[in-house]
Design goal:
The chain is of the alpha+beta class. It contains 7 helices and 4 strands, in the order H-H-H-H-E-H-H-E-E-E-H. It folds into 2 domains: about 60 residues, Arc Repressor Mutant, subunit A, CATH 1.10.10; about 80 residues, Glutaredoxin (3-Layer(aba) Sandwich). A 4-stranded mixed sheet has the order 2-1-3-4, with helices on one face. The chain is elongated, with a radius of gyration of 18 Å. The structure holds FE2/S2 (inorganic) cluster.
Length: about 170
């Protein structure tokens, strides 16, 4: 499956979303949610476009709203969003080797958050609320308990293989 460039915005698509809400600035949050669904994050160009296009708003206002709410991400997200818990319980039970295995497998140096193909993004979080299952990872909405570097490698290999098969 091919993944579109994370930085390209399609203004026709943005117009369609804005029109769906009749361009009402009271619908800005819903509009941003839709845009994020589309791109998996909020590209800066999209925020500028929305701020310019919608009456009564400015790019600065749209940007301010987008950065205020934790639900919005201004960084590109992969099709698969990997979250590795590095809270205390997970850390002492070996979350770091798991994190390093993911970085190695996906070619993500420290500080690089998204794989070159745009399929995977990686972040660490401080607790996923499943400390009894430590160390815990999530890929999108799925929880992976008691992870090891070998186990996560197998999970990632499977996803990569599925993607290559364009499933
Ligand atoms: S510390 Fe990892 S789930 Fe709570």
């Amino acid at each position: 499956m091919s993944v579109e460039s994370p930085h390209k915005i399609d203004t026709a698509k943005l117009d369609a979303i804005i029109n769906q809400y009749e361009g009402k600035k009271s619908s800005l949050i819903a509009i941003l949610q839709k845009v994020q669904e589309e791109y998996r994050y909020l590209p800066e160009e999209a925020l500028i476009y929305i701020g310019t296009k919608m009456e009564g708003l400015s790019p600065a206002t749209v940007y301010g709203v987008a950065t205020f709410y934790a639900q919005f991400s201004l960084d590109p997200k992969g099709k698969y969003e990997i979250r590795v818990c590095d809270g205390t319980a997970c850390h002492v039970r070996g979350s770091m080797p798991v994190l390093n295995a993911i970085r190695n497998k996906l070619g993500l140096a420290e500080g690089k958050l998204t794989s070159d193909d745009g399929l995977f993004s990686l972040e660490t979080v401080s607790c996923l609320g499943a400390c009894g299952l430590a160390p815990v990872c999530m890929i999108n909405e799925k929880v992976y308990p008691q992870m090891t570097s070998d186990a996560i490698s197998i999970v990632l290999d499977t996803l990569i293989k599925e993607e290559k098969g364009d499933k």
